[in-house]
Amino acid sequence: MWELIRANKRKSLFLFFVMGICLLVLGFFIGGAYGGEGGGFTGLFIAFGAWILMSMISYYRGDSIILKMSKAQKVSYNVHPQLFNIVEEMKLAANLPVMPDIYIIPEEAPNAFAVGKKPENCAIAVTAGLLERLNRDELQGVIAHEMSHILNRDVLFMTFSGVLLGSIVFLSHVFLRSMWFSRGGSRFRSKSSKGGGQLQLILIVAAVIMAILAPLLARLLYFAISRKREYLADASAVRLTRYPEGLASALEKISNNHSEMLTANKATAALYIANPLKPKGMKLSDLTSTHPPMNERIQILRNISHGANFMDYQNAFVSVKGKQNIIPPSGRNESKKITLRASSIASQPKSAKKSTRDLGDLMRAVNKYMFFSCVCGLKMKLPPNFKEDKINCPRCGRENQVPIAELAVMSGMIAGNEKNDNIRNNEQADQDSFVYNRTGKGWESFSCRCGSPKQLSPAFNKSYFICNKCGRKIVVKGP
Fold first, then answer.
1. Is 350 part of a structural domain of the chain?
2. Residue ranges of the chain with pLDDT lower than 50?
3. N or C terminus: fewer CB in 10 A for the chain?
4. Does residue 337 belong to any structural domain of this protein?
5. Nearest by Cα to 269 from 300, 234, 236, 227
6. Residue 421 lies in a domain
7. What are phi and psi of 164, to 5 degrees?
8. Domain co-membership, 76 together with 156
9. Do 141 and 182 fall into the same domain?
């Protein structure tokens, strides 16, 4: 699929310039509306500067901006081990050079997206609702779909175009609102009448037309290319998982959930695996939708029966959509047979009460709550700003000591002869030590190099502690 990657780079460059031209033309007419003939070139110059600035921001910081807008939280292995295992599986299957960073969005609506300018620097974000509602095969299908966007170099296109589209929409909205609050442009008309010419009036009308059309044209172009990329990502996901029903079932569950994501917006909607802005009962046309029709994507996936290579997806696509080549030539000429696999899990649906409780616990874990159990069996959940060293159990009233790290003894010495066998001498431990940099003052979870989970509380104020499993010295730095 090398020509797919090269074509995606060409399309990204094409869309970058087309959206840039839309921004320049819009800036010219808005500048002319405010300042007359000379104002048009001033607006053009400002728009060009904004284009360069937003392009640099998109390239160097676009992924972090999108993740922050989505309120995505970077998580460790301990928060959701199954998610990390699946991402690692798909990373190996896709032959990516590095493991993507993993983020969880504390939203109940099931969805996911990927960002990053290249495979060496990328991230996958999923919602808490997605993790709660999908089984392992379904979650693997979604992760494979997002991994395919990274593999096919879609993420750079999405990041660039999402930020540029947001700039065009923002500039248009500011101008149209200023026209509204200036009482239909009376301020502009008074300037043009004093100047004695009709040129500025023409520029005002042209600016209004461009402010309406530019975001629409940019969106249509963006959405048209994005929809094709979704089909290609589905095809690549089938190849990675060899189980099309997993992704089909995941898309079905996502489409049947009518919750709207609160952190999504029009500029980032096309990033997600499914349209996050579609409320219940709303039907978007193919022309204005950020994604292909969900029922068609599911039908194509369920029509795959002979294998998992690209030609098998192409045949299923033709059976649903008609004669149209969605797969590039190298994919259609692929001769390697990839057999489908059976489901890897037994279906055991959870009760609604347990699902709600698990979803709440996951969202608390993402927000850095600390969990520990009283001897009576009650699981207690402490917020990240909890700084007391003791807490009474609300069930049995027993006073519990709040752990401030993996071990109660922070001096480097471990009480109890039963643990000495697992601890190497201090000299070897110092040589094998590693540094953990804290990111804040709240609860933080991470793993030692031996794989043992560790947790620091807001009350932890030592410079290091010793792993009770391998004896390694863990140096703690940061705030």
1. no
2. 192-194, 196, 280-285, 406-430
3. C
4. no
5. 227
6. yes
7. -65, -40
8. yes
9. yes
Catalytic residues: 146
The pLDDT of residue 325? 80
What's the pLDDT score for residue 442?
A: 73
Residues 6+ apart with CB under 8 A from 134: 110, 142, 250, 253
Is residue 268 located within the same domain as residue 385? no
Question: Which pLDDT tens digit goes with each residue over 148-203?
Answer: 998 888 877 776 766 677 777 777 777 777 766 655 555 555 554 445 456 667 76
- Domain carrying residue 438: 417-477
Flag whether 348 is in a domain.
no
Of 299, 332, 365, the position where a domain reaches its end is 332
pLDDT reported for residue 305: 86
In a shared domain, residues 373 and 473:
no
Please report the DSSP string for 342-397 in residue order.
--SS---PPPHHHHHHHHHHHHHHHTT-EEEE-TTSPEEEE-TT---SEEE-TTT-
Contact 429, 472 (CB under 8 A): yes
Taking CB atoms within 8 Å and a gap of at least 24, the contacts of 394-398 are 398/374
Return the pLDDT at 401: 79
Q: Which pLDDT score, from 0 to 100, does residue 284 have?
A: 45
Burial 336-360 (b: 16+ CB within 10 A, else e): eebebeeeeeeeeeeeeeeeeeebe
